[in-house]
């Protein structure tokens, strides 16, 4: 695959992945069976403020990016677009989606949303434009302070979930299902959707100082 085609694929995957991620989260919200911790927080803030959940997601993402400063993390273009695009995509999808009347329909909607989220995550992470703001916070804290990533993630997400639930966010069996299933599902999609490195990428990796990249 030529460098040009790799570049086009990377950008296409990034933008498509972020849009589909927003749609996937909207499906989980409308299924009304429980959400991931960060969306529980966003929904709780939505309940308390009346702001659209998409706007809240953008504001939370910006707040998390500010936390990157003390841990000396630098965002990639994918990180910034993650913050700016997922929220509006959620709001657009929520305009056309409705909560099903029957439980089995909600279960199917949740399963579809979770599957789409795993694919979307593989797309935008596989594009190699930088991690999402929350993932970068975990890995950055690990790199800066040496804290185990699983401890950082657990501590942050339990706190976020508790605050979101107290504010009125939806916690349920779907929250548990998300926690148990999303990791293995992304483990399947990410290797298959990762864009191969171009010749230019390999050259920069081999000669970071010459190319002006950070050592």
Description:
- The protein is mostly helical and 215 residues long.
- The protein has one domain (3-195).
- Helix content is 75%, strand content 0%.
- It has helices spanning 3-31, 37-49, 53-67, 77-96, 103-126, 133-145, 149-167, 173-193, 199-206.
- α1 packs across α4, α2 crosses α3 (53-67) and α6 (133-145) packs across α7.
- The longest helix has 29 residues, at 3-31.
Overall pLDDT: 90
Structural class: mainly alpha
Tertiary shape? globular
* Topology pattern, helix = H, strand = E: HHHHHHHHH
Write down how many β-strands occur, each being a DSSP E stretch of 2 or more residues.
Answer: 0
As a whole number of angstroms, the C-alpha radius of gyration is: 18 Å
In which range does the helix fraction lie?
over 70%
**Tally of alpha and pi helices:** 9
Query: What can be said about the biggest beta sheet?
Result: none
Strand content: under 5%
Which runs of at least 5 residues are low in confidence (pLDDT < 50)? Answer: 207-215
Number of domains: 1
């Amino acid at each position: 695959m030529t460098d040009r085609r790799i570049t086009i694929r990377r950008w296409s995957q990034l933008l498509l992945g972020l849009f589909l991620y927003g749609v996937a989260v909207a499906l989980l919200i409308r299924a009304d069976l429980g959400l991931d911790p960060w969306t529980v927080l966003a929904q709780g803030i939505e309940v308390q403020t009346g702001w659209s959940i998409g706007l809240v997601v953008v504001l939370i993402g910006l707040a998390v990016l500010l936390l990157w400063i003390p841990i000396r993390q630098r965002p990639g273009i994918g990180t910034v677009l993650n913050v700016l695009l997922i929220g509006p995509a959620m709001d657009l999808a929520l305009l056309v989606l409705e909560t099903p009347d029957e439980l089995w329909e909600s279960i199917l909607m949740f399963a579809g949303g979770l599957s789409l989220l795993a694919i979307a995550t593989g797309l935008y992470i596989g594009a190699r434009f930088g991690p999402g703001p929350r993932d970068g916070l975990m890995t950055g804290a690990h790199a800066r302070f040496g804290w185990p990533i699983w401890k950082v993630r657990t501590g942050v997400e339990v706190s976020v979930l508790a605050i979101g639930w107290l504010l009125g966010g939806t916690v349920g069996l779907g929250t548990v299902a998300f926690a148990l299933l999303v990791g293995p599902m992304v483990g399947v999609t990410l290797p298959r959707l990762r864009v191969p490195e171009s010749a230019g990428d390999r050259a920069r990796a081999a000669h970071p100082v010459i190319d002006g990249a950070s050592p």
